[in-house]
């Protein structure tokens, strides 16, 4: 019991330190309350995956993850028909997509390009972590597996591929 409390306290301290550091660097940030990932359908189509941890997410955007932050290119954006509340949401990034509206239809993805997917709210009250990937990463995925950026107990971020069941169980543990 004591070690569980210590881990929870350590996670809280890491999260607070990260928020303080981000606020100091960027001025304003949107609080994170969801985790983004990607997967594929049985026929190989790209799926967006969002695990909402407690509040809500209204949509998601896929963009080119370029080193020059002033030059980001949106390659797809989707708005959920209803706000996504706590729990798991998945949707194909290519139409038709029941429950989602493509506000920017998915553009063709290209090799040697890194993409990032994240979730957002229309009023900027909440957002999700982002997941970065290339077409090679997508091609390595199999149905039922989710690629996402996980955060270890010591605050280190790494790209991880897990089963959908494990993603649902673990994704919100570090938020």
Automatic annotation (TrEMBL):
Name of this protein: Lipoprotein
PROSITE patterns in alphabetical order: PROKAR_LIPOPROTEIN
Keyword Signal: yes
UniProt signal peptide: 1-27
UniProt keyword list: Signal
